[in-house]
Amino acid sequence: MKKYIKKSLTLCITAILMLSFIMTAYAQTNKPSDDNEIKMYKTANSVRIYASPRSALVSSIELDLTKVNSSTLKLYSEINCHVEMEKIYMSVSLQKLEDNSWKSITTEDFEWLKTDYPNTALTIASASYKVGSLSAGEYRIRSSFSVSELNGSGHESRTSTSSGLSFP
After folding, report:
1. What is the SS3 assignment for 100?
2. Beta partners for residue 163, in sequence order
3. Is residue 26 predicted with pLDDT exceeding 50?
4. Does 25 have pLDDT greater than 60?
């Protein structure tokens, strides 16, 4: 009987020790949508996206794709930063859905430097342009941003993309 109790007690202690080494782990993905709060608005004539990244430098991003007339779309892109920047770079593309993949139709690049705005805090930048003579189809706006902090201590890059807009 003592042998049975001793054996049972040993098994119980072994089981308790083994279970005490089990730890719970949580996984986190690094998808862009996981670190952004994104709000998308769509009407028959426009698609708009507001993104609020959880980052040290970028406060918000806004994209807007609007029908101007039966052959023209207007693209608008804006970035707001928490702190003053040395440089803000923006690349704004109009893309069209062709053969189940998005193809760039046009891309415009913009750059703002603190040296060009010595008396203004460089914390916001926006750009817009129109693209005409477009054929019917599904279009979207895609913008890439790069910001460099004034004191040189930080740098961030972001890309945001709207959903598609049927045109015309």
Report:
1. coil
2. none
3. no
4. no
As a whole number of angstroms, the distance between CA 45 and CA 93 comes to: 18
Using CA atoms in the order 27, 62, 92, 155, what is the torsion angle rounded to 10 degrees? -50
The DSSP 8-state label assigned to residue 35 in this structure reads G
User: Is 16 within a domain?
Assistant: no
Residue 35 has pLDDT above 60, yes or no: no
C-alpha to C-alpha distance for 93 and 98, rounded to whole angstroms: 15
For 89-135, write each residue's pLDDT tens digit: 999 999 999 999 999 999 999 999 999 988 999 999 999 999 999 99
Range of the domain at 44: 31-167
Residue 63 lies in a domain: yes
> Which tokens is 155 given?
């740098």
Domain-embedded: residue 15: no
Determine which of 10-14, 21-25, 158-162 has the lowest per-residue pLDDT on average: 21-25
Residue type at 167 in one-letter notation: F
Which domain CATH number covers 142? Answer: 2.60.40.10
Amino acid at 20: S
3-class SS of residue 54: coil
* Number of domain units in the chain: 1
